[in-house]
Amino acid sequence: MITVTRLNGKSFSLNAIYIETVESFPDTTITLVSGKKYIVRESQEQVTADIELFYKRIALLGKVKVEEDPDGN
Q1: Predicted local distance difference test score (pLDDT) of residue 58
Q2: Is residue 70 part of a domain?
């Protein structure tokens, strides 16, 4: 979940897994896969950073550990 703020100042949490697009019109508009749209105070860059952090927390995005073969390669 990421926390964002509506234009009226009220914060709410949004499940980032369901976010399809984040755009600036100039207000930041988040569109979910269901088609529902939210206009928020945070910048597009901030929302994107929050999504990336969320993905890392739930291990959807991060370092991929490659196992070495017996020869050390």
Answers
A1: 86
A2: no
